[in-house]
Design goal:
164 residues; alpha+beta; CBS-domain; three-stranded mixed β-sheet; two-stranded antiparallel sheet; 7 helices; globular
Length: 164
């Protein structure tokens, strides 16, 4: 596939269609377990009507934990690579995450402002949207917020690797 072929690709041509999702009333522990089991760093949040109502990422969970670590005494410092800004960050870690995630719902932490494109969006426009928003994934949704897939930075690497 040459550069001109890459120019003709759309979000639908590169998106991952088999997407692991989570519900808004599931817990952060459930989200972490799903992310770990499926080797992903984010999950679209789907309501019972099949609409995408948010996105929960590992960064959202770590930020939530860090914000609430002030209420807990013992903390340790850890390193976390934030893929949204492509930098390592020092974060405070507490026992809070291990003990209390079962009580925190995804809907209380998820991002509701979705970065999304439609299936026919040209891949170049998808890339610009990701750069502008400083994210490494966009959701592929229709106008009714039904999820068709996800385009990630890795999908771009995959598309370039297929070029002749």
């Amino acid at each position: 596939m040459g550069a001109s072929m890459l120019d003709r690709l759309s979000a639908a041509d590169c998106m991952q269609r088999d997407v692991v999702t989570i519900g808004p009333v599931d817990t952060l522990r459930d989200a972490l377990d799903l992310m770990t089991e499926n080797h992903v760093t984010g999950l679209p949040v789907m309501d019972r009507a099949g609409q995408c109502v948010g996105l929960i990422s590992a960064t959202d969970i770590l930020n939530y934990e860090q914000e609430h670590s002030e209420d807990v005494g013992d903390t340790t410092q850890g390193q976390h690579f934030n893929p949204d800004i492509q930098q390592w960050e020092t974060i405070s870690l507490t026992a809070f995450g291990l003990e209390d995630f079962g009580d925190v719902r995804v809907q209380d932490v998820m991002a509701r402002d979705l970065i999304s494109v439609e299936c026919e969006t040209p891949l170049q426009r998808v890339a610009h949207q990701m750069l502008d928003a400083k994210v490494h994934r966009v959701l592929v949704l229709d106008d009714q917020r039904r999820l068709y897939g996800v385009v990630s930075a890795l999908d771009f690497v995959r598309a370039v690797a297929k070029m002749d």
